[in-house]
Structures are given as structure tokens and as C-alpha cells.
């Protein structure tokens, strides 16, 4: 069962990156980076102490044409970058009140998505449910932590639109991760996924990659799939709230620096050289499918 905790309006913030943020100060190698990603009203700061400097982006409709992307609510994001520990952390609150955190651990090649989802108290749920999805971090998915830490923004209240909408990625999270052993995979799991100890998921194909790097395989457990249990349905098709099913959860990172831009210059001798001259911003959505022992833990995934 998912762990019970405080209301997500005041959750434990995922300040695992940088390390110094938990101590109430920043180390010399750590930088709080203020970024925004459209046009629109500014959303107020997320609650909680010691949050990174906020960033604001406009949330477009689900993967619309470029002409339709100027409309939509505003999403505030907070970004941190720590070049010393080679990680970045991005946090945002969705329209339905969920608090989503993305932590990218470049050193271990690991991405951690955490979602604190408001529970439906009238239907017997806890105040919130916590989920963690862990995937491999591929090269060039997001700009390096060192580059992120150097970024600055003149007007933190400017609301901007992501330049590129990347395709929705559908991931089958068919393996559970043992929280107590997760530090070997990434030291950030201990703090980021503390509220989701029994709900940490990854993919078998990513597990194979990590095993080749020497990670202990005992931290992983393959979850039941429809091929193992013919009666296992998707939760949105399951009428019984107490039966196991395959749940789906979708989230979107509305604005993040996905690429560095390079410009060319020519010296007095005519030699051409390249230099970093900016960033390209992206928006990307993810849908995670994973096993739950009862539909009660997946009430958002219902047919409308």
C-alpha cells in the first residue's frame, strides 16, 4: 500500500539536489538557477521552505499544433542545478494539484520522476499517494548540470513557451525497486522517493543496462503482467476497486533546457570556432503503466 503522509500542499520537498540545500545553504559548486519557459500570468510560488527560485511556463493543450500552443494555464517550475554532484532537479505543480519532481543524476545515468498525487478522501484514499518512476538518463536528453548552473534570467516573472514539443513517451514500468537498496542505483532515491517506499518502479530494459554496470540485481523485482495473469485488466476497465490491475499515470515536464545552442565566430586570421550561445527549451510528456495490487490505488485512471 502507498505510504500515508502529510498533505501534498506541504510535502517534504525533494531537495536532494544540491546536497547543500538540505543544510539551508549552498556550497560553492552549487547554483540555484532561475529559468522560465509563453506569455501569461505569473503563478505564485510553491509552498514550503528552501525552494529553488521559481520558473514559469505556459501549459499547452496536450500536444497541439504550434498555432494552438499560446493558450493554456500557466505552470510554475522550480529548477536547481548542482555541478558538484552532477545533478539537476525540477519541480512543478500540475493543474490537478499533484506535485511532480524530476531529478536527473548524470553521474549514475538515472532519471527519477516523483509524483505526490492528491487522494480522494471521500473514496477512502489517503491524503496523497506517492509514486516514483526511475528510468535511464540518456546522453543529450537535457543540458549538463554545469551548463544549467550557469544559466541566468533577467526577468524571473516572464512566462515563456517551450520551443519544442517532444513526443509523448509511453513506458511500461514492469519492475519494482527496493527502496532500502536503491542508493546503489542513485544516492538521490533515498530522499526523492522517501514517501514512495512501496511504489518505486522501473523498466526491465533499463535494469539490464544497470546490471551491466555492476548494480546489485537483488534490488529489483519483476511485477506481474497480463501475460502472467490473463485476467489482469487495465484499471480504467476494472469495475472492482479491490482487484489488481495495470494503472496508468501521465505527467508532463512543461519547460526544461533540453539542448545547448552553438554559434560560430571568426577570428582575425579567418579561423572559425564554435561557442555556446544559448539553450533550446522543450516540453515532454510521459505515460507510465505499472501494476497495482488494487484499483483503489489508481482511482484517477478511470473511463470518462
Determine Rg (CA atoms, Å): 20 Å
Instruction: Please report the distance between the alpha carbons of the first and last residues.
Output: 25 Å
What proportion strand?
Answer: 35-45%
- Indicate the overall shape: globular
Q: Could you list the spans in which at least 5 consecutive residues all have pLDDT below 50?
A: 1-15, 18-56, 58-70
Percent of residues in helical segments? under 10%
In short, what is this structure?
This protein has 304 residues and is mainly beta. 6% of the residues lie in helices and 37% in strands. Strands 1, 2, 3, 4, 5, 6, 7, 9, 10 and 11 form a 10-stranded mixed β-sheet that branches. The chain has a 4-stranded mixed β-sheet with strand order 8-14-13-12, with no helix packed on it.
Overall description:
The two termini are about 25 Å apart. This protein is about 5% helix and about 35% strand. It has helices at about 145-150, 190, 205-210, and strands spanning about 30, 55-60, 75-80, 85-95, 100-105, 110-120, 130-135, 165-175, 175, 200, 220, 235, 245-265, 270-290. The strands form 2 sheets. Strands 1, 2, 3, 4, 5, 6, 7, 9, 10 and 11 form a 10-stranded mixed beta sheet that branches. By secondary structure, the chain is mainly beta. The model is unreliable at about 1-15, about 20-55 and about 60-70 (pLDDT under 50). It comes from Amazona collaria (yellow-billed parrot).
Amino acid at each position: 500500500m502507498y505510504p500515508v503522509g502529510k498533505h501534498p500542499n506541504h510535502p517534504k520537498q525533494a531537495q536532494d539536489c544540491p546536497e547543500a540545500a538540505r543544510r539551508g545553504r549552498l556550497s560553492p559548486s552549487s547554483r540555484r538557477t532561475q529559468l522560465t519557459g509563453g506569455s501569461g500570468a505569473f503563478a505564485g510560488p510553491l509552498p514550503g521552505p528552501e525552494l529553488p527560485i521559481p520558473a514559469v511556463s505556459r501549459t499547452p493543450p496536450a500536444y497541439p499544433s504550434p498555432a494552438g500552443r499560446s493558450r493554456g494555464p500557466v505552470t510554475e517550475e522550480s529548477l536547481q542545478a548542482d555541478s558538484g554532484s552532477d545533478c539537476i532537479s525540477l519541480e512543478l505543480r500540475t493543474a490537478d494539484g499533484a506535485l511532480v519532481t524530476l531529478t536527473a543524476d548524470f553521474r549514475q545515468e538515472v532519471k527519477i520522476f516523483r509524483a505526490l498525487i492528491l487522494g480522494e478522501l471521500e473514496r477512502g484514499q489517503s491524503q496523497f499517494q506517492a509514486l516514483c518512476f526511475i528510468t535511464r538518463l540518456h546522453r543529450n536528453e537535457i543540458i549538463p548540470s554545469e551548463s544549467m548552473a550557469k544559466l541566468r534570467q533577467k526577468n524571473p516573472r516572464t512566462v515563456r513557451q517551450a520551443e519544442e514539443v517532444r513526443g509523448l513517451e509511453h513506458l511500461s514500468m514492469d519492475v519494482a525497486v527496493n527502496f532500502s537498496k536503491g542508493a546503489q542505483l542513485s544516492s538521490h532515491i533515498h530522499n526523492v522517493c522517501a514517501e514512495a517506499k512501496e511504489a518505486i518502479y522501473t523498466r526491465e530494459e533499463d535494469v539490464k543496462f544497470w546490471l551491466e554496470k555492476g548494480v546489485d540485481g537483488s534490488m529489483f523485482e519483476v511485477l506481474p503482467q497480463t501475460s502472467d495473469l490473463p485476467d489482469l485488466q487495465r484499471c480504467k476497465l476494472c469495475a472492482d476497486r479491490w482487484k489488481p490491475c495495470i494503472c496508468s499515470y501521465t505527467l508532463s515536464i512543461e519547460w526544461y533546457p533540453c539542448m545547448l545552442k552553438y554559434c560560430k565566430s571568426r577570428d582575425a586570421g579567418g579561423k572559425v570556432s564554435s561557442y555556446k550561445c544559448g539553450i533550446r527549451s522543450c516540453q515532454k510528456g510521459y505515460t507510465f503503466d505499472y501494476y497495482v495490487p488494487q484499483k483503489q490505488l489508481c482511482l484517477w485512471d478511470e473511463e470518462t
